[in-house]
Amino acid sequence: MKRDFTQRFGFLVKSVGKLYSEEFDRLARERIGLTSAQCRLLGALAMHGDPDEVEPLSQAELAQRLDLTPMAVAGLCDRMAAAGWIRREPSATDRRVNKIHLQPSAEKALDAALSISDGLNARVMAVLTPPERAQLLSLLGKVHGSLVEITSGTGPKP
Questions:
Q1: I want to staple 102 with a disulfide (CB 3.0 to 4.6 A). Which of 21, 41, 106, 140 is the partner?
Q2: Which residues of the chain have pLDDT under 50?
Q3: pLDDT value for 156
Q4: So what's the pLDDT on residue 48?
Q5: CA distance 149 to 40
Q6: Has domain 19-115 been given CATH number 1.10.10.10?
């Protein structure tokens, strides 16, 4: 018996995320020569805060934030350091740890990635009215909050 999963929440969210990610990746590679994973890494570093005010993230912390393996992040960092997007600095307290810093060239790449994202968002959301867009984002935010509670053990039990 054939089953239709296209209206199931988990299936639909995963499919939308996959399609969006693939299109963003294609556009980012074409326009700025970075993959979506590289853009996510730069974004995670930029969201972390000013390195003069907070301790820079380590490769292990980046792996956790990006939901990637430490090996995958090490490979990303190798390529991005070689291209001048980031700089690795050994930790002053643990020689096994590398702290990752954004290079000035990464700011332009981040601006370009955000521009690509804004353009893709506009194209994707063009099928919705402004109130529908706001409602979609609001509802997804609520579901996200619920999932955070459930996965942290503070949410409703089955």
A1: 106
A2: none
A3: 65
A4: 84
A5: 24
A6: yes
State the number of CA atoms in the 13 A half-sphere of 109 facing the CB: 26
Name beta bridge partners: 99.
Answer: 58, 89
CA distance 102 to 89: 11
Contacts of 149 (CB under 8 A, 6+ apart): 155, 156
Residues 128, 64 contacting (CB under 8 angstroms): no
For residue 117, what are its two tokens?
């994202």
Residue-wise DSSP of the chain: -----TTSHHHHHHHHHHHHHHHHHHHHHHHHS--HHHHHHHHHHHHH--TTTSPPPBHHHHHHHHT--HHHHHHHHHHHHHTTSEEEEE-SS-TT-EEEEE-HHHHHHHHHHHHHHHHHHHHHHTTS-HHHHHHHHHHHHHHHHHHHHHHHT-S---
Longest dimension (CA), the chain: 61
pLDDT at 113: 96
Q: State how far the alpha carbon of 90 is from the alpha carbons of 70, 129, 131, in Å.
A: 16, 50, 49
Q: Whole-model pTM?
A: 0.81
- Which residues, 6+ apart, have CB-to-CB distance to 8 below 8 Å? none
